[in-house]
Amino acid sequence: MTEKIARFFAENRPATPCLVVDLDVVARNYDRLSGALPDAKIYYAVKANPAPEILRLLTGLGSSFDTASVPEIEDCLAAGATPDRISYGNTIKKAADIRRAYELGVRLFAFDSEAELEKIAANAPGSRVFCRILTSGEGADWPLSRKFGCDPEMARDLLLRAAALDVVPYGVSFHVGSQQRDLAQWDAALSTTAAIFRDLEEKGVALRMVNMGGGFPTRYRTDVPGTDEYGFAIDEALRRHFGNRIPETIVEPGRGMVGDAGIIQSEVVLISRKSANDLRRWVYLDIGKFGGLAETMDEAIQYPIETERDGGPAEPVILAGPTCDSADVLYERAEYRLPVDLRIGDRVAIRATGAYTTSYSAVNFNGFAPLQAYYI
Amino acid sequence: MTEKIARFFAENRPATPCLVVDLDVVARNYDRLSGALPDAKIYYAVKANPAPEILRLLTGLGSSFDTASVPEIEDCLAAGATPDRISYGNTIKKAADIRRAYELGVRLFAFDSEAELEKIAANAPGSRVFCRILTSGEGADWPLSRKFGCDPEMARDLLLRAAALDVVPYGVSFHVGSQQRDLAQWDAALSTTAAIFRDLEEKGVALRMVNMGGGFPTRYRTDVPGTDEYGFAIDEALRRHFGNRIPETIVEPGRGMVGDAGIIQSEVVLISRKSANDLRRWVYLDIGKFGGLAETMDEAIQYPIETERDGGPAEPVILAGPTCDSADVLYERAEYRLPVDLRIGDRVAIRATGAYTTSYSAVNFNGFAPLQAYYI
């Protein structure tokens, strides 16, 4: 917990549950990432946390933005970003939304299928397009399905087809999977990407950009490689596969930019056992899967949890949320331990919750209000 | 699709995605359930769909209400329900919320642990309390964790303890699991409940009420027993286990009351393949896991999906939502088939979506607005 956040909690004692984000940490993350990848352009993945305070800060620092929808594009523009700094990175877009983005000045679009490419050519003529390829997602904590990207062979065909349409075949993108801890995954994806670049060059199409997506992790309960290590591994892989003809590069950090900048404070609503000889206590918090902690799905993301009583003896607990939904259990298998003398009414700090929390929270499930947030 | 909903879509052509609920179907469901269980009091589980239109309708029909939070209690009061028709059925409540409910006139509270019982006694003196027991949830489609309820033995002890506090030990509740298709589950739970009643009577505590929870299913892709069959099975089980001393009974239908009353209309945003020889097409809709279809988690709830091109040849598809989250895949293993000539821009009807959709939708994940709904 940063001093600034600790002071905010102490002075304001805000109603729980609430998220507090330290904007200084976001700025530091931006600086670290641009330091580690000095040749890459940073496109912040707005979906991770679209708060205007974060968008304004990053606009000021020189960031560009990866957006998923027209409202996200409008939010970036409202924060002061010019449209040339905005990528419409969703591969699933309505024709009307592509047109609207184009009218707003956006000229960089993602696709991974023929139909999407045709929609872009028809509604955003002259724009630069990049094709997303499938990667395995091995080593990532948050599941990477086959939802995005296409086979490299199909990517080649589609980029060639793009050259015949009224768009600029600009590059290739991939995503190694969110919270990716295996540095070799970037190498594998860059190897495939370089092969596509060579093939297309032979056919007279010069691609210029590699979008390496996100995947940069936040430290949750276990250590992750440092930003510098990612920078070094990526730099090395670029040299290995592109030699002295390294293309423009883009990265799209979301979690890696804001994850560790935020802390959720929550209250213990109930502590109980299911029977007299139950070995594990149930600890129910006033935030759960539907109030902002959706990424606890299948216990994928395991946030560090701190209490004011840490230090003494602790025992295993099952953690759950406050709704009447039986699926609203946070951690049952992940072996969390909390202090034996934890009490109902205690506050707990759920760390590294700056990303994928506020915007995930349900409108009013069970009558609970969406997660309140403060950006300081 | 009811005629009323079909006409609404045809005449209004509302922007997608949107949910339309036919209130006549809700009224019909209420009548059927009260017909099938004439001796039970119906407490509608507000969390299933807290729309004021539904609450007002059910208030008028004579329903009572099972609520999960103070805002849900306030919604019921605003809809015209008197506090004696409201149960605070969440077993996880903050002391301040219990007090607030008490101030609003609520006198019926759930608990499943000693700490919760003590909170109720301290903050809602004189109220009736019922203890929820654990059940297996076997046969239910939506997962029933061990989150709610306690061992029958502990329930006995706690109800005895309640008699010594300033509350009325009123009864026992259980929940057989949502979308429960095995009628025998009520029998098993009622057998356990009757044993608790007998034990407490021996100790001089006369319980008066059995809260049989919800679990009444909606017809999704597969047939479910009819309301009458549930009524018959429950009636028989009550007689078997309680003889001629059948207690007051409560049921808490949510899904069974509003599930089949609603239809979501969604637009096909993209149809694609991942490679030239991909066997299954991906169909991306403008609604997904984070826009209201949260119950597709692990493909638990499988909504019937209809298109305007049904009837001709169909082929297997993978269905996914519109967000940039790779977890936003609706059905990959559930073997959905859609027409071969389905086109981008087509509208599809996602049936039986009146329950657990609107209130589950995310505030603005990926910039997408929460699910719009119309009650007609």
TrEMBL record, chains A, B:
It holds the Pfam family Orn_Arg_deC_N. Pathway: Amine and polyamine biosynthesis; putrescine biosynthesis via L-ornithine pathway; putrescine from L-ornithine: step 1/1. One of its GO terms (cellular component) is cytoplasm. Its EC number is 4.1.1.17. Keywords: Lyase, Pyridoxal phosphate. One of its GO terms (biological process) is putrescine biosynthetic process from arginine, via ornithine. The active site is at 324 (proton donor). Residues 25-258 form the Orn/DAP/Arg decarboxylase 2 N-terminal domain. Its cofactor is pyridoxal 5'-phosphate. One of its GO terms (molecular function) is ornithine decarboxylase activity. The keyword Lyase applies. It catalyses: L-ornithine + H(+) = putrescine + CO2. SUPFAM superfamilies: Alanine racemase C-terminal domain-like (SSF50621), PLP-binding barrel (SSF51419). Belongs to the Orn/Lys/Arg decarboxylase class-II family. PANTHER family: ARGININE/DIAMINOPIMELATE/ORNITHINE DECARBOXYLASE (PTHR11482), ORNITHINE DECARBOXYLASE 1-RELATED (PTHR11482:SF6). This is ornithine decarboxylase. It comes from Rhodospirillum centenum (strain ATCC 51521 / SW).
